[in-house]
């Protein structure tokens, strides 16, 4: 008989891992989130008889994820983490916004036990889906002694949630952690740790106390050849509260956008920059340059600015 602390809570939110297509060989035209948490675990024979508590929180294609789902997920995870019977928690999720949810949870959820996100690139109906192995690895990681923090189990690797980046639109090996690399490798069901489990970095924003409909509105604008800055003016006129400029290279921003950003700042809008490059983020700063959040991707920087604005408002 398993001890109580071996129980893993498993929450399904949708994604390709829970997706099914009408034809088994269709790897693109599927319904994301068609399967429930019970159906997902039933497809993994190695999980039969394991101590799991499953629930289906959402059946989303993660490209449609919204703040209300994050608020609900945060609340549910907090309440389960407080229960001593759980060794850890697994969250199944779509790959498209996995790095955003991972960052959001990393900054808002105190996780002294592992909270393991996992996903898949191939739907559950594929001849050779990647979801079942990723799910099995995630459940094992949720029980790994000493593990903690928001982690991602994907493709035989364990990433820190804060360092995740989706690199590829359809290949199996779709994720990386940029320069940081993986935290651990999965070797025949065991975890070979390459560095420490991620340390907590909780943001002070009172995110659980503010209804998601009142979270600050922050949008992303990309800098590119031929940028005009008019999109920034339109967003300011529309009442945006924060802007992330996804800059080129090391966070460089087209002059027209910089001028528009100055108008936005003068109107009281918070403006930061990030890099649209896949790795490296932004390093250093020059006089008068917009602030940045270092290695954060534009999507992660959007969350960070939203939390900063929420904290400032409190
Ligand atoms: N569109 C899907 C999602 O993010 C893609 C995936 O899960 O791989 O939900």
From TrEMBL:
Annotated L-asparaginase N-terminal domain residues: 8-190
Family designation: Belongs to the asparaginase 1 family.
PANTHER family: 60 KDA LYSOPHOSPHOLIPASE (PTHR11707:SF28), L-ASPARAGINASE (PTHR11707)
Binding site for substrate: 62, 95-96
Molecular function GO labels: asparaginase activity
Origin superkingdom: Bacteria
Keyword Phosphoprotein among UniProt keywords: no
Domain Asparaginase/glutaminase C-terminal: 217-308
Presence of keyword Hydrolase: yes
Record protein name field: L-asparaginase, type II AnsB
Entry keyword set: Hydrolase
Active site residues per record: 16, 95
One BP annotation, GO: asparagine metabolic process
Protein source organism: Rubrivivax gelatinosus (strain NBRC 100245 / IL144)
């Amino acid at each position: 008989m398993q001890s109580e602390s071996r129980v893993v809570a498993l929450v399904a939110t949708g994604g390709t891992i829970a997706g099914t297509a009408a034809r088994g060989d269709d790897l693109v035209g599927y319904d994301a989130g068609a399967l429930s948490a019970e159906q997902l675990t039933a497809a993994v024979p190695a999980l039969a008889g394991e101590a799991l508590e499953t629930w289906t929180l959402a059946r989303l294609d993660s490209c449609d994820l919204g703040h209300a789902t994050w608020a609900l997920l945060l609340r549910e995870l907090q309440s389960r983490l407080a229960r001593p019977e759980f060794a850890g928690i697994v969250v199944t999720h779509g790959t498209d916004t996995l790095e955003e949810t991972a960052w959001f949870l990393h900054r808002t959820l105190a996780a002294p036990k592992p909270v393991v996100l996992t996903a898949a690139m191939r739907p559950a109906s594929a001849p050779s889906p990647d979801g079942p192995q990723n799910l099995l690895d995630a459940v094992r990681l949720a029980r790994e002694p000493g593990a903690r923090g928001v982690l991602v189990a994907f493709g035989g690797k364990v990433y820190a949630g804060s360092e995740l980046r989706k690199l590829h639109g359809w290949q199996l090996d779709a994720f990386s952690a940029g320069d940081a690399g993986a935290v651990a490798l999965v070797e025949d069901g065991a975890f070979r740790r390459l560095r420490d489990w991620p340390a907590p970095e909780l943001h002070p924003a009172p995110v659980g106390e503010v209804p998601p409909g009142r979270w600050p509105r922050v949008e992303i604008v990309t800098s590119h050849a031929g940028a005009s800055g008019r999109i920034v003016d339109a967003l300011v006129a529309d009442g945006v509260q924060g802007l992330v400029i996804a800059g080129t290279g090391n966070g460089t921003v087209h002059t027209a956008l910089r001028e528009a950003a100055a108008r936005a700042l003068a109107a009281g809008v918070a403006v930061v920059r990030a890099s649209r490059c896949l790795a490296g983020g932004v390093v250093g700063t020059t006089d008068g340059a917009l602030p940045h959040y270092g290695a954060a991707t534009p999507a992660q920087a959007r969350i960070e600015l939203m939390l900063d604005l929420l904290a400032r408002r409190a």
